[in-house]
């Protein structure tokens, strides 16, 4: 066995031990064993217990499936967290909006009372605004 074929022999063993499938066909329609010009490499490929490859491939697929499921659960948890934050932010916004609305209403009522107390109320162009204030601020 030459150094090159010995290195190839070991490389093929490592690949097979890590799940490489010797049954796969290359673009030219040949399997790795048919393509190899090294007899020792062909021997490793031919003697490899394909049941081991099938077991590794099933394990790898199960790992991918588990990872996909974990990713989905993580995505669902993250979506739930964001939705919860959004609902809380919407409630906070609604509360703030009510407070601001109440503050504006109070300011309008104050202005209306100041105007009416001083008899500065002018009808005409201000009548719409005055009517609005009177609607907001019952006496």
What does it look like?
This protein has a domain of 48 residues. The N and C termini lie far apart (108 Å). The chain is built from five helices and no strands. The protein is rod-shaped and about 105 Å long. The N terminus is likely disordered.
Number of H/I helices: 5
Return the string of H and E elements: HHHHH
Measure the end-to-end span: 108 Å
Structural class: mainly alpha
What are the low-pLDDT stretches, counting only 5+ consecutive residues below 50? Answer: 1-5, 119-125
Q: Would you report the number of β strands?
A: 0
Radius of gyration: 40 Å
- What does the overall shape look like? rod-shaped
How confident is the prediction overall: mean pLDDT?
Answer: 77
Largest sheet: none
Beta-strand content estimate? under 5%
Q: Helix fraction?
A: over 70%
Topology, pairings included?
Blueprint: H1 3-17, H2 32-35, H3 39-47, H4 50-118, H5 127-136
Helix pairs in contact: 1-3, 4-5
